[in-house]
Amino acid sequence: MPYDDAAPETGKPSEIVVFWTLRDSQCSQCKSDLPSGRFLILEARQPLCLACADLDHLVYLPRGDAALTRRARKHSSLSAVVVRFSRSRKRYERQGILVQEGALARAEQECLSDEGLRASRREREEQRRRDYDEKLVELMAGKIRDLFPGCPRSEAHRIAEHTAVRGSGRVGRSAAGRSLDEDALRLAVIASVRHAHTNYDELLMEGMDRASAREEVWEKIEQLLKDWEKR
Ligand SMILES: [Zn+2]
Fold first, then answer.
1. CA 92 to centroid of ligand 1, rounded, Å
2. pLDDT per position in the chain (231 positions), as tens?
3. Angle in degrees, CA 31, 188, 214, rounded to 5
4. At what angle do helices 182-197 and 134-147 cross, to 10 degrees?
5. Ligand 1 centroid to residue 26 C-alpha, Å
6. What spacing in Å lies between the alpha carbon of 32 and ligand 1's midpoint?
7. 124: CA distance to ligand 1 center in Å?
8. Residue 156 three-state SS
9. Which of 73, 87, 98, 154 has the most beta carbons within 10 angstroms of its beta carbon?
């Protein structure tokens, strides 16, 4: 059992550890397949996908650029370390970190004098763009604005983009169709508001469990959604 072996040495006790899986697994909550190579966390030794762990809004930054890593982590109110078990060395090794997209962008800005970095950023952006279908994003953004006319256009687009990327990981037209479902969109908006308009990420970072943290920020979310529902 790769997960039952000695826990990785990760320094800070409060650090959130994300595992890069080496074998096929399944999320213990939503039951989605987690093929090897995916990220998951362990809660009570049970695998949990990043969506269920409320970490799927974070972006992956591979190790290799110490300055960028340090700055991205500094700007991110929620971050996690990604580890993978090395079979040859028989220990967990750090692969990179997960940080908020805005924090990474800001860190990259700060490091922009480095030309090589500019290239790697372009690459990452292109990869991200390939990952979703722009038409689906437009459709979803429109539907979000039907549900929440007060939601700023750019924010609706960002939420749709994120949801489309997530849907594409689960593959296929049925997933795309499902992601246009009203309930699915409402959930996507709630998840986004939770991360973008409340201190939810900070609460998780402080070690609060998800249920308590969600309760703590719920009122604020409800109020904002009410405002957005108005024309
Ligand atoms: Zn899950």
1. 23
2. 344 444 455 445 578 999 999 899 999 999 999 888 899 999 988 999 999 999 999 999 999 999 999 999 999 999 999 999 998 888 999 999 999 999 999 998 888 766 666 777 778 777 766 665 777 888 899 999 999 999 999 999 999 888 877 655 443 445 556 667 888 889 899 999 999 999 999 999 999 999 999 999 999 999 999 999 987
3. 80
4. 80
5. 8
6. 6
7. 25
8. helix
9. 98
Residue 184 in any domain: the answer is: yes
In a shared domain, residues 43 and 108: yes
Residue listed under structure tokens 């409320």: 54
Q: Last residue of a domain, which of 130, 151, 169? A: 130
63 CA from centroid of ligand 1 (Å): 26
* Domain membership of residue 209 as a residue range: 134-229
Å from CA of 30 to ligand 1 middle:
4
Which amino acid, 45? R
Q: Domain for residue 220, yes or no?
A: yes
**151 three-state secondary structure:** coil
- Strands 25-26 and 16-20, by their bridges, are unpaired
196/25 Cα distance (integer angstroms): 30
Q: How far is the CA of 150 from the centre of ligand 1 (A)?
A: 30
Q: How far is the CA of 106 from the centre of ligand 1 (A)?
A: 29
DSSP, collapsed to helix, strand or coil, labels residue 54 as coil
Report how far ligand 1's centroid is from the alpha carbon of 173 (Å).
20
Domain boundary among 130, 152, 170: 130
pTM strictly above 0.70: no
Does residue 142 sit in the same domain as residue 204?
Answer: yes
